[in-house]
Amino acid sequence: MFSSTSTTRRARRPLAILAALTLPLAVTTACSSDDTPATQADSVTITDQWVKASDKQMTGAFGTVANTSDREVTLTGGDTDVADRVEVHEMAPAGDGTMTMRQVDGGLKIAGGQTVSLEPGGNHIMLMDLKRPIEAGQTVTITLRFGDGSTREMVAHARDFRGANEEYTPGHGSSDTGSDG
Question: Are strands 44-52 and 58-67 parallel, antiparallel or unpaired?
Answer without folding.
Answer: antiparallel
